[in-house]
Design a protein that fits this description.
heterodimer; A: 159 residues; alpha+beta; Ubiquitin-like (UB roll); DNA polymerase, domain 1; 2 domains; five-stranded mixed beta sheet; 31% helix; globular; B: 291 residues; Uridine Diphospho-n-acetylenolpyruvylglucosamine Reductase, domain 2; Uridine Diphospho-n-acetylenolpyruvylglucosamine Reductase, domain 3; Enolase-like, domain 1; 3 domains; five-stranded antiparallel beta sheet; four-stranded antiparallel beta sheet; 10 helices; 25% strand
C-alpha cells in the first residue's frame, strides 16, 4: 500500500515522515518519529497506554490515524522532563510509588497533564473519573491518585 | 491489531465528502467521524473498508444549536460537548448526565453523538436517548437529503436505514418542557463499559398527574425502544399511585432480551425491571427537588 508524505508537529518539533494512511498516530510516533515513550498496549482503545495530547486534548493515539494529526500540535511524554529534571508529576509518581512496571505510565502522565491544563479547577470527583480512563494492572490506582493529589496545586499553577 | 490498508480522504466540504462517498461506497467505503468504535473494529479486522471519508474537517458539521424548539447536533459534535448543559431546561441536564456514562473521558473527546446513532450499538446511550425522546436524523447524499424519525432510522442491532452513499449530517432532539423531569439508570460491570441494561424515563406532572410518560430501555434488546405498556401504567395517574415493583414487573414482562456468552436473557430481563424502577425513582426524586 502507498505511503504518503506527512508533516507532524510533535513537542514543538517538525517531523517529515512518509506513512500509510492506515498507520496509527501511536505507531507513527514510535516508528517514524523515534519517540518510543508513547506505549502501545491493547491497540483498540481500551487501555489508554498510548494517550497523547492532540490540540491539547487527551486522545487514544491507537484510535487516530497519523494523517489525521496533520496540522495539529501533538504532545507526548517526551515533552515533560527538562533534560535530567523530571516534570513535577513524574517526580510525584516516583515519590508515591505510582508505577511498578511503568508500561501504563506515559499514558497516565499525559492524561493527567492534559486534564489539568484544560481545566485547572477540575473537581476531585471529576479527576477520579478521568483517572478511570486508563488501565494500570500494578498499582490499584491508589498510589496514582496519591501522586496526583500531592502535586495538584502545582499542576493547577498555584504553587 | 493493525487495520487493513485503506485510502483516507479528508474533504473539507460536505459536497466533496458526498462526492467521494458516492464514488467509493459500493466497494465498502465508510464515513469516519470520531472513530472510537470504527477504528477498534478495523484494528480487530471486523471491518476493512478500502476507503474512509474523514468528515472531521468539515467545519459546518460541528454545529450545535437550539432553533424552533429543537436541539440540532451536527455530525462531528463530540460526546464531551454535553458534559455541561448545552440547552436550558431538563434536556441539557439529561444529556449531561447521560454523557458521563459513555466510555471514558478521552473517548468522549473524540467520539460523536451522530456517530453513535449511525453505529447503532444496542448498548449505545445516545441511541436510547434518540428513541425515547423522538430524535429526527438528517441524512444527506448526492441525490439530496431526507429526514428519518428515530423509529425508522434504527432497524436492528448495528443496523440503520442509512444508505451506503448517505452521511448523517445532524440529529435533532425536541427541547423538553421546563416542567418535565427525567431519570436515567445504567448497569454495567465496570465503569465505562458497555451497558448491560439501562433505562431513560421522562414525564411531566400536570395537575398532579403524570403526562407524556416515556420509558425507554437500552442494552436489553437488539435496539433501544419505549415500553408502551409500562408507560400506560403511569399515564394520567398520580406518580405515587403506581408501585415501583409493579413497574419493574411489567418491564420484565414486556421485554424480549438478548442473550450472549456472559449474560443470559433471564439476567437481562431481571435487569430491565431494575433499571426501569431506578430511572422512574430518579425522575420522581428530581421532580421532588424542583417542587
Amino acid at each position: 500500500m502507498d505511503k504518503h508524505p506527512l508533516e507532524l508537529t510533535v513537542n514543538g518539533s517538525r517531523f517529515t515522515v512518509e506513512v500509510e494512511h492506515r498507520k496509527t498516530l501511536a505507531d507513527t510516533l514510535r516508528e517514524d518519529c523515534g519517540l518510543t515513550g508513547t506505549h502501545v498496549g491493547c491497540e483498540h482503545g481500551v487501555c489508554g497506554a498510548c494517550t497523547v495530547l492532540v490540540g491539547g486534548e487527551p486522545v487514544r493515539a491507537c484510535l487516530m490515524f497519523a494523517h489525521q494529526a496533520a496540522g495539529r500540535p501533538v504532545r507526548t511524554v517526551e515533552s515533560l522532563a527538562a533534560g535530567e529534571r523530571l516534570h513535577v508529576l513524574q517526580q510525584a509518581f516516583t515519590d508515591h510509588h505510582a508505577l511498578q512496571c511503568g508500561y501504563c505510565t506515559p499514558g497516565f502522565l499525559m492524561l493527567i497533564v492534559g486534564a489539568f491544563e484544560r481545566d485547572p479547577d477540575i473537581a476531585d470527583g471529576e479527576l477520579i473519573e478521568v483517572l478511570s480512563s486508563n488501565l494500570c494492572r500494578c498499582t490499584g490506582y491508589q498510589n496514582i491518585i496519591r501522586a496526583v493529589r500531592s502535586v495538584q496545586d502545582q499542576l493547577r499553577g498555584r504553587a | 491489531m493493525k487495520p487493513a490498508p485503506f485510502e483516507l480522504h479528508r474533504p473539507t466540504t460536505l459536497g466533496e465528502a458526498l462526492a467521494i462517498l458516492g464514488r467509493v461506497c459500493d466497494e465498502g467505503g465508510l464515513v469516519l467521524a470520531g472513530g472510537q468504535s470504527l477504528v477498534p473494529m478495523m484494528a480487530l479486522r471486523v471491518v476493512y473498508p478500502p476507503h474512509l471519508v474523514d468528515i472531521n474537517g468539515i467545519e459546518p458539521l460541528s454545529r450545535i444549536a437550539v432553533e424552533d424548539g429543537l436541539l440540532t447536533v451536527g455530525a462531528t459534535v463530540r460526546h464531551a460537548a454535553f458534559h455541561r448543559p448545552v440547552v436550558d431546561g431538563p434536556l441539557g441536564h439529561l444529556l449531561a448526565e447521560v454523557s458521563r456514562h459513555i466510555a471514558h473521558y478521552p473517548i468522549r473527546k473524540r467520539g460523536t453523538f451522530c456517530g453513535s446513532l449511525s453505529h447503532a450499538d444496542p448498548a449505545s446511550e445516545w441511541c436510547l436517548v434518540a428513541k425515547t425522546l423522538g430524535a429526527r436524523i438528517h441524512l444527506a447524499s448526492l441525490e439530496g437529503g431526507r429526514v428519518l424519525e428515530a423509529d425508522a432510522f434504527f432497524v436492528g442491532a448495528m443496523t440503520t436505514a442509512r444508505e451506503p452513499a448517505e452521511i448523517v449530517v445532524e440529529a435533532r432532539l425536541p427541547v423538553m418542557p421546563g416542567a418535565a423531569t427525567f431519570g436515567f439508570s445504567e448497569f454495567n460491570r465496570r465503569a465505562g463499559d458497555f451497558a448491560l441494561g439501562m433505562s431513560l424515563v421522562t414525564f411531566e406532572i400536570v395537575d398532579g398527574v403524570v403526562v407524556d410518560p416515556r420509558i425507554g430501555i437500552g442494552g436489553i434488546e437488539e435496539m433501544p425502544r419505549r415500553l408502551p405498556r409500562v408507560e400506560a401504567m403511569l399515564a394520567d395517574r398520580r406518580v405515587t399511585d403506581t408501585e415501583p415493583a409493579a413497574l419493574a414487573a411489567a418491564a420484565c414482562e414486556e421485554v424480549d432480551p438478548m442473550e450472549d456468552a456472559t449474560t443470559t436473557a433471564d439476567y437481562r430481563r431481571h435487569l430491565a425491571g431494575v433499571v426501569v424502577a431506578r430511572a422512574v425513582g430518579a425522575a420522581v426524586a428530581r421532580q421532588a427537588r424542583k417542587d
